[in-house]
Automatic annotation (TrEMBL), chain A:
Compartment annotation: Cell inner membrane; Membrane
Keywords: Cell inner membrane, Cell membrane, Cytochrome c-type biogenesis, Membrane, Transmembrane, Transmembrane helix, Transport
Lineage: Bacteria, Pseudomonadati, Pseudomonadota, Gammaproteobacteria, Alteromonadales
Location (main, coarse): membrane
Protein's UniProt name: Heme exporter protein C
Domain Cytochrome c assembly protein: 28-184
Automatic annotation (TrEMBL), chain B:
Name of the encoding gene: ccmB
Coiled-coil spans in chain: none
Subcellular location, record wording: Cell inner membrane
Topology in the lipid bilayer: Multi-pass membrane protein
Keyword set includes Cell membrane: yes
Superkingdom of origin organism: Bacteria
Protein's job: Required for the export of heme to the periplasm for the biogenesis of c-type cytochromes.
Protein's name in the database: Heme exporter protein B
From TrEMBL, chain C:
UniProt-listed NCBIfam families: PRK13165.1 (NF009638)
Organism for this UniProt entry: Thalassotalea eurytherma
Record Gene3D superfamilies: Nucleic acid-binding proteins
Protein name: Cytochrome c-type biogenesis protein CcmE
Superkingdom per UniProt: Bacteria
Parts of the chain on the Extracellular side: 30-161
Chain residues that bind heme: H139, Y143
This protein's UniProt keywords: Cell membrane, Cytochrome c-type biogenesis, Heme, Iron, Membrane, Metal-binding, Signal-anchor, Transmembrane, Transmembrane helix
Residue ranges that the UniProt entry lists as topological domain Cytoplasmic: 1-8
Pfam families: CcmE (PF03100)
Function: Heme chaperone required for the biogenesis of c-type cytochromes. Transiently binds heme delivered by CcmC and transfers the heme to apo-cytochromes in a process facilitated by CcmF and CcmH.
Protein localization: Cell membrane; Membrane
UniProtKB/TrEMBL annotation, chain D:
Physiological role: Required for the export of heme to the periplasm for the biogenesis of c-type cytochromes.
UniProt keyword Mitochondrion present: no
Membrane topology per record: Single-pass membrane protein
Top-level taxonomy: Bacteria, Pseudomonadati, Pseudomonadota, Gammaproteobacteria, Alteromonadales
Protein name: Heme exporter protein D
Assigned protein family: Belongs to the CcmD/CycX/HelD family.
InterPro entries the UniProt entry points to: Haem_export_protD_CcmD, Heme_exporter_D
Transmembrane region(s): 15-39
Pfam families: CcmD
Highest taxon, organism lineage: Bacteria
Length: 247, 230, 161, 72
């Protein structure tokens, strides 16, 4: 059943496969973001309560969703890396960590810039904001642990354990809004059935979200390729490839 | 000395616990230094903030818990570092019993040495900080359930960084974010108690954190030790 | 069953027991109301589930809807007072509803307006008055364009204060 | 189009500072991430190339040594 997956456990094949995917992701991301952001900034209607400040939504919400999804993805990759000894899974976890950290930072900064005019404060120690901040710390811990080991294989395993331990944080973030009756509103877009927004606000959001998602995919592919190269630097195919490219 | 038949899990656990406690009793500063640190940190706050009783009593739960957290963090190093340095850690990993038994014994020993004394000294410090009189019960309960969680989570961090030179700062970067939920719920419980409201919800969450770390941390620590001593 | 298997089974069982204790504790915690959040009616009658009342001088957090027509501002300073009523769906106000008065000295958030959900942190004073140190606006998860909102009867004018 | 003039677009109904702060910071961080990814990719390749060059040099030196010792 899993036989078709076997060739992808080979670093060389995966490297070339990823290389082929990268331009697709890049162009999809550029096109979707260009449409989505123009739509969001120029054509989407302003909110009846929040006015034009609502446009921050189109960055804040995709970034927040992605920051958590990337962490879950990283933890799953780290878990399979530890359990099935997949070196490539470790490499993909290492590639995802900085991307996730950047998106968490974006979610926090845009959230602060949105909270100031709307709630009346840049920052509040509410459960959801706090756990997003902890998520950023977790990402930074994982990255720091990656850099602390000379041996990349060991670094991947150690950071993987931390990522799995930290995954307990994700449900706390996800459900904190329901647990504590605090300032941050409930989820808008993941509501089943009808989204709690009108269609002319929702469509640009979808474009932005998938634009950012493909951006994540493209950058992760690039970083993943880098990780594969640095982990296999002594292999003949890497040497040949580098010789070809450096010339 | 070594018996011929392999000791059972329980015997291995007790042996390890006894060994660590004996070592700690020989080096008494292992017990007293974190405790002294705890007391000094707590006394710094009234000096820095001012001796006004109403202010102090409001921030007392936070001060005591943050100080307990830092004291635990400071004492984490001795959990595996000495054993790693003299090679006895690698010996422990070779014995036939599963590693998590040893790990569990070491963590419990660590809590008995550093966590338990904090609990005894905390009410005295709480008096100095004018803690609301309704809160003492909550303070003791949260410390009793919460400090073991600190030892368990901390052990994961130490196990990950034990092989790294200058792992100290990295250790706090890894461990402190994971400590935050304990801190939030513990101080929330103490605050709630001060208002004479029921705080069993918060205690239940800390209890849940305790059981989670109790059942899962030993496995995570064993895995981390295997990586570090590679 | 050989001893090795038996041991492994014991380990798995104890992990399962541990995790089910965790699940039980979390469920219990969820059934408790673990916030210091009061509704205006709860200031009058005590907490819904426990009947506990907030004491005078106690620091509390209160959440409710700003009662239309109750916002009074001081001409010369930023001082403002307004009444809060329980949040309920659909939004409706009744003179007989239990209300509390919030007094505040500071800049209100842009979302603040009559009928808006508000969270205030402050100290409870005599006569169901909250001396707020902080007033924050809570908005719901619904976003809609102005025209649609007007159709839905949620007319909005940006506060002029 | 929601805005009738460019100035109105920049002003964002009075929220210009916050909106443009968000979009600006997000763009800045994303650009930094892309730059970092490209640079580290290049660095790794250069490191491997350097390593390779050094190895080849060593190999050549060893060969020369061997030839020298043979001829003498």
């Amino acid at each position: 059943m899993w036989k078709w997956l076997h060739p992808y456990a080979n670093p060389e094949i995966t490297y070339h496969f990823t290389g082929k995917l990268t331009p697709w992701f890049t162009w999809l991301s550029i096109i979707l973001l260009a449409i989505g952001l123009t739509w969001a900034l120029l054509f989407a209607p302003a909110d009846y309560q929040q006015g034009e400040s609502f446009r921050i939504f189109y960055i804040h919400v995709p970034a927040a969703i992605l920051s958590m999804s990337i962490y879950v993805g990283m933890a799953i990759a780290a878990f399979s890396g530890l359990v099935w000894q997949l070196k490539l899974a470790d490499a993909s976890a290492a590639a995802l960590a900085p991307v996730g950290a950047v998106f968490t930072a974006i979610a926090l900064i845009t959230g602060a810039a949105w909270g100031k005019p709307m709630w009346g404060t840049w920052w509040i120690w509410d459960a959801r904001l706090t756990s997003e901040l902890i998520l950023l710390f977790l990402y930074l811990g994982v990255i720091a642990l990656h850099n602390a080991f000379e041996d990349k294989a060991l670094a991947g395993k150690a950071a993987g354990i931390l990522a799995i331990v930290g995954v307990i944080n994700i449900p706390i973030i996800k459900y904190s809004v329901e647990w504590w009756n605090t300032l941050h509103q409930g989820a808008t877009v993941s509501k089943f059935g009808k989204p709690a927004m009108s269609a002319d606000m929702y469509w640009p959001f979808l474009f932005c979200f998938f634009g950012f998602a493909f951006f994540v995919a493209a950058v992760t592919c690039l970083r993943f390729k880098t990780e594969i190269l640095s982990r296999n630097s002594m292999r003949p195919w890497v040497k040949a490839l580098v010789k070809e490219e450096i010339k | 000395m070594m018996s011929i038949n392999i000791p059972s899990y329980r015997q291995a656990f007790m042996l390890m616990l006894k060994r660590d406690l004996t070592i700690a009793l020989r080096h008494k500063d292992d017990i007293f230094n974190p405790l002294l640190f705890f007391i000094i940190v707590v006394t710094l706050f009234p000096l820095g903030i001012g001796p006004e009783a109403s202010t102090l009593s409001r921030i007392a739960p936070g001060i005591i818990w943050v100080a307990a957290l830092l004291a635990t963090l400071l004492s984490l190093d001795r959990l595996f570092k000495a054993d790693f340095a003299d090679g006895s850690l690698e010996q422990m990993m070779l014995i036939p019993q599963p590693l998590f038994i040893i790990v569990l014994a070491k963590i419990i020993a660590h809590w008995l040495i550093t966590g338990l004394p904090l609990i005894f000294i905390a009410p005295v410090l709480a008096v100095l900080l004018h803690l609301n009189e309704n809160s003492y019960g909550a303070l003791m309960i949260t410390l009793l359930i919460g400090t073991p969680v600190l030892s368990f989570i901390g052990a994961i961090g130490v196990a990950l960084t034990v092989g790294i030179k200058k792992g100290g700062v990295l250790l706090s970067l890894i461990v402190l974010p994971l400590y935050i939920p304990v801190l939030i719920f513990a101080t929330s419980a103490i605050d709630t108690a001060a208002m004479n409201l029921p705080y069993s919800g918060q205690v239940a969450i800390i209890g849940a954190l305790f059981f989670t770390s109790f059942t899962l941390a030993p496995f995570a620590v064993s895995a981390a030790l295997k990586v570090s001593t590679n | 069953m050989n001893p090795r298997r038996k041991k492994r089974l014991t380990i798995i069982l104890s992990v399962l027991i541990g995790l089910s204790v965790v699940a039980g504790l979390v469920l219990y915690a969820l059934s408790q109301n673990i916030d210091l959040f009061f509704k205006p009616s709860e200031i009058h009658q005590g907490k819904e589930d426990t009947g506990l009342k907030a004491q005078l001088g106690q620091r509390i957090r209160i959440g409710g809807l700003v009662v239309p027509g109750s916002v009074k501002r001081d001409e010369s300073s930023l001082k403002v007072s307004f009444k809060l009523a329980d949040m309920r769906m659909p939004i409706a106000f009744n003179d007989a509803d239990p209300m509390v008065t919030v007094k505040y000295d500071g800049i209100l958030p842009d979302l603040f307006r009559e009928g808006q959900g508000i969270v205030a942190n402050g100290v409870l004073a005599e006569g169901f008055i909250i001396e707020a140190s902080e007033v924050l606006a809570k908005h719901d998860e619904n976003y809609m364009p102005k025209e649609l909102a007007e159709d839905a009867g949620k007319a909005h004018t940006k506060p002029s204060y | 189009m929601q805005f009738s003039s460019f100035a109105e677009f920049i002003d964002m109904g009075g929220y210009g500072f916050y909106v443009w702060l968000s979009f600006g910071m997000a763009t800045l961080l994303l650009v930094l991430l892309v730059m970092n990814s490209l640079v580290s990719n290049k660095q790794v390749k250069q490191r491997i190339a350097k390593q390779q060059a050094r190895q080849e040099k060593l190999k050549r030196a060893a060969k020369q040594q061997a030839q020298l010792s043979q001829s003498s």
